[in-house]
Each structure stands twice: as structure tokens, then as C-alpha cells.
UniProtKB/TrEMBL annotation:
Name of the protein in question: Iron-containing alcohol dehydrogenase
Cofactor: Fe cation
Similarity comment: Belongs to the iron-containing alcohol dehydrogenase family.
GO molecular function: alcohol dehydrogenase (NAD+) activity; metal ion binding
PANTHER family: ALCOHOL DEHYDROGENASE, ALCOHOL DEHYDROGENASE 4
Organism domain of life: Bacteria
Family annotation (InterPro entries): ADH_Fe/GldA (IPR001670), ADH_Fe_C (IPR056798), ADH_Fe_CS (IPR018211), Alcohol_dehydrogenase_Fe (IPR039697)
Record-linked Gene3D superfamilies: 3.40.50.1970, Dehydroquinate synthase-like - alpha domain
Organism: Candidatus Desulfobia pelagia
Domain Fe-containing alcohol dehydrogenase-like C-terminal: 191-386
Domain Alcohol dehydrogenase iron-type/glycerol dehydrogenase GldA: 12-180
UniProt entry keywords in alphabetical sequence: NAD, Oxidoreductase
Length: 390
């Protein structure tokens, strides 16, 4: 299998990991030739005292910066356009994204738009970005999206009320600074959904039809780190070991998805964000066990391996029993960290399910990556099961 498989891996992002790594921010800006920073920041950072920790290295080094914190949990394309206009007007030549996936996606898009011109809408899809952006450095303050190491930026298209991504190698950040100390103030509910989001990235990349030896290595390590540490980080946010493991697991999951892609969970989560403004991580988390249940027959060996890596004893089980244990493993982890058990808990109207299913199937790349090829009826049935609950 490995000897005949063809794959390409492009992952240029410098990774700086460890407690206190944020102190290196100013030096990284200078390493990339930056003289003024456009800081795209999650608006909650100032409320929890993190914004100062991120700006202090810049202040100490005498590097000026402009803060753009008008970032929504599910950002629209207009935010990327507005941010680009302000960055250009302010004379910034380096972009820093700090916060969760939304802030980092906006930051990545701003970097690209500053050199490529046009509007964010022009670059939705794959391979439409022709030029490298200005230097961009990502500082995740949650363990979830892995956006600090991916070539994607996802937005809501206000015209169509659908979600779509800008995709291309120029979107890879130049550097990522992963400081676990920046994640300890994240409250339990913000630890939970992004944590399961990261697990979803790793799990879907592992069973993707585009998976390979390198993506599997990233994915399995991420699945183990996240499944063994999310509960601890959720219960005790000050546990720096658990926070470190989660941040590392999230990053590895991002690397896995960047090389192997994601699957049907993501495709089905897009309508929840576009139509009902459900945060991406929460949508993925609620849908995950139901899609795993559907997908098992597409690759039972790998789903059995997932259950094993998540700490379940499968030695005495048949392959069928072992693979189905993956559903139990995911659902129990969701329960441990307070994820809603069904779409009804998110106030999703059941009558919208057929429309959601049609939209989900238009998210072609994740659907094509999925280990089982879904029909429209399949997707409707999964949504209905997820709406009703176990």
C-alpha cells in the first residue's frame, strides 16, 4: 500500500512551542522583515487579560502595531475585506492572528489580500491565490482548529449565507507560536467544543481516502493526545500538562487535515454555521458520533484502531465490535465535556434537514474524502438521527 501510494506534503510553517513561547513574537516579526504589525485579535482576549501578554513583547521591542478585534465567531467575508483596508491604511507589513480559528482565518486572508488585491470573495475555492501574502504569524489561544498550520481560511459568504474556504499553499502561516500558558484562561465550554473539533480533524484525516503514512502519523498522535487530555483540561483549566498536550494535539490534527483533508462531518457542519450561525467546532462535535456510526463500514480496521488509541480494550472483540467501539468512545468523550447530544438541543428545525443535506453535498472535497460515499438520502438520515439523539 505505502510503496505504491502517491502523496505530496507541503508544510512550511515554523512552529515555536512551549510555555513562554509568546516572548519570541517580536523577534519572529523582525526575522520576517516586519516593521509594523496588524494584530487580528479575538475580542475576548482583552476581557481575559491575554491581549496584553501578546502585545507586551511588541511594546518592549518598540514594534508598533494596529489592533483589529472586530472578529465574529463565524466570520463573514466582509471582515477580511475590512481588515485588509485597515491594514493597508495603517502601513502594516506583517500580520499576527491571535485567538481561535476565526481570528487566525481573518488574519491569513488579510495577509493574502494585501498582496493579491481584490476582495476575499474572489479567492473562494482552491488554487486561486497567485502571490504570497505579507508575513503572517499565528498565535492560537485555544486548542481546536489547528488553523495555525493549515492552508485554509473559512468564511460565511453573506450573499449566499453559505460557508466556503479560501484554499492554497500561500495561506500557510510563516510561523506559529504555541504557548500553552495562553490557553489556561479558556473556560470549560470553550475548551470542550474546540477540543472535539480538533479530534474531528484528526479522526477524519485518519480515515480519509486521501490519508497516507505521514498524515496517519500526525492523526493517530493527535487522537491519543486529545482523547487522553481533553477531559482533564475541561475539568481543570490550570493543568498546564493537559493544556500543553491539547495544544500540541490540535496542531498535529491541523497538520493531518492539511495533508489528508476532512470528511462528511465537516460537510454537514457547514450548513449549521451558514444557516443557523452554530459555531463550527460545536457543529462538528455534535455531528461526529453520528457520522462515525455511518462511516464505520467504510474502513472498519481504522475505526477499530481509533477506539484502541482512545484507550478502549478491543483485544477480545471481533473487528466489527472493535470498530463500533469508536462510536462509543467519541460519544462518551462528548458527554464527559458537556457537548449537546443532538441537533434539537441546538434549536435546529427538523424541517430544514432536506435543505441542509443538499447544501452539505455541495461541499465536494470533504464529501469526496469520506470513507463511505453518501447519497442525499444518507445525509438526510444522518441529520435525522443527530436531531433525534441516541
Amino acid at each position: 500500500m505505502i510503496s505504491t501510494q502517491k502523496f505530496t506534503v507541503t508544510q512550511p510553517t515554523q512552529i515555536h512551542f512551549g510555555v513562554g513561547a509568546i516572548d519570541d513574537l517580536a523577534q519572529k516579526v523582525r526575522d520576517f522583515g516586519g516593521s509594523k504589525v496588524f494584530l487580528v485579535a479575538d475580542p475576548n482576549l482583552e476581557k481575559v487579560g491575554l491581549l496584553k501578554k501578546i502585545t507586551t513583547p511588541l511594546v518592549t521591542a518598540g514594534i508598533p502595531f494596529e489592533i483589529f478585534d472586530h472578529v465574529d465567531p463565524e466570520p463573514g467575508l466582509r471582515l477580511a475585506d475590512e481588515g485588509t483596508a485597515k491594514a493597508m491604511e495603517s502601513g502594516c507589513d506583517c500580520v499576527v492572528g491571535a485567538g481561535g480559528g476565526s481570528a487566525m482565518d481573518v488574519a491569513k486572508a488579510v495577509s493574502i489580500l494585501m498582496t493579491n488585491g481584490g476582495k476575499a470573495e474572489d479567492y473562494l475555492g482552491l488554487g486561486k491565490i497567485k502571490k504570497a501574502g505579507v508575513p503572517k504569524i499565528m498565535v492560537p489561544t485555544t486548542a481546536g482548529t489547528g488553523a495555525e498550520v493549515t492552508f485554509t481560511a473559512v468564511f460565511i459568504n453573506e450573499k449566499t449565507q453559505s460557508k466556503g474556504g479560501m484554499n492554497g499553499d500561500p495561506l500557510y502561516p510563516d510561523a506559529a507560536i504555541l504557548d500553552p500558558a495562553l490557553t489556561v484562561t479558556v473556560p470549560p465550554h470553550v475548551t470542550a467544543a474546540p477540543g472535539i473539533d480538533a479530534l474531528t480533524h484528526a479522526l477524519e484525516a485518519y480515515v480519509s481516502t486521501q490519508s497516507h503514512a505521514i498524515s496517519d502519523m500526525y492523526a493517530l498522535e493527535a487522537i491519543e493526545l486529545i482523547s487522553q487530555n481533553l477531559g482533564v483540561a475541561y475539568a481543570n483549566g490550570n493543568n498546564i500538562e493537559a493544556r500543553s498536550a491539547m495544544l500540541l494535539g490540535s496542531m498535529l490534527a491541523g497538520k493531518a487535515l492539511a495533508t489528508a483533508g476532512v470528511g462528511l462531518v465537516h460537510a454537514m457542519a457547514y450548513p449549521l454555521g451558514g444557516m443557523f450561525n452554530i459555531p463550527h467546532g460545536l457543529a462538528n462535535a455534535v455531528l461526529l458520533p453520528y457520522v462515525v456510526d455511518y462511516n464505520i463500514i467504510g474502513n472498519p480496521e481504522k475505526f477499530a484502531r481509533i477506539a484502541y488509541v482512545m484507550g478502549y480494550d478491543i483485544d477480545e472483540l471481533s473487528l466489527r465490535e472493535a470498530s463500533r467501539t469508536a462510536v462509543e468512545a467519541v460519544f462518551e468523550l462528548n458527554q464527559d465535556v458537556g457537548i449537546p447530544t443532538c441537533l434539537a438541543d441546538l434549536d435546529i428545525p427538523a424541517e430544514k434537514i432536506p435543505e441542509m443535506a443538499e447544501i452539505a453535498l455541495t461541499v465536494t472535497r470533504p464529501v469526496e474524502n469520506n470513507p463511505r460515499k453518501p447519497s442525499l438520502e444518507d445525509v438526510i438520515l444522518i441529520y435525522e438521527a443527530a436531531h433525534k439523539g441516541w
